Amino acid sequence: MLIELIYPEIANLLGEHGSMQLLELTFGAQDLLYTPYPERPRFLDGGVDFVYMGGMTEKTQALILAKWRPYASAFARRIAGGQAGFFAGNALDLLGRSIVYVDGETIPALGLYPFDTLCRRYDRTNEILSGRFRDFYLMGFRSQFTTQTGDTGAFPFIEVEYGSGMNADTNNEGLNDKNFFATSLNGPFLVLNPEFTKWLFSLFGYHGGLPFEEELLAAARIRRDDLARACGS
Q1: C-beta of residue 88 within 8 angstroms of C-beta of residue 7
Q2: Separation of alpha carbons 51 and 6, rounded Å
Q3: Rounded to two decimals, what is the model's pTM?
């Protein structure tokens, strides 16, 4: 198997080293490809089983999009063809139509999905979120000063039960298109949700265990129970 980590040296904010370490421990160094900025992502040319990208600074978003806009059609073809992947944090913003800075510039994004990211600097939301995807209970942490506008439910991922969605008018968080997932949540998400993570890995043929799986599952149960008590449910 080949697992690609895109720009891990600059796309690693808010706990994403944890998800990268989970990938390293699960698949081993021999199966990991670390694609450094500004190289073209390898998965666009095929041969990659799973692609992962974490969050980044706003300046980094602009630099990456300047490189990636010519690749938009290749992104769309790979995802339509069933490419498995997960983008966390504000890597999600790269996939919409634009990133709009209030009282500032608008940066064109890849245009793969029908949403725009509205950025209000210094108006940050920090929260715990929980919800459902299929039979999975999911949770994560949000720390962002952005919301998404447009058709944010066109490719729904998490049905939010506690916390906020992509904007005040939706209970959807993130997107799911075939075997590709993206969410604004961090945490790191793959570590926090081991049941989902095992299922996600099964989409590209991995049916082994996770490192420290029993401990990950036990910690997930504790977090779930703690949040349920905090919510009074």
Answers
A1: no
A2: 7
A3: 0.96
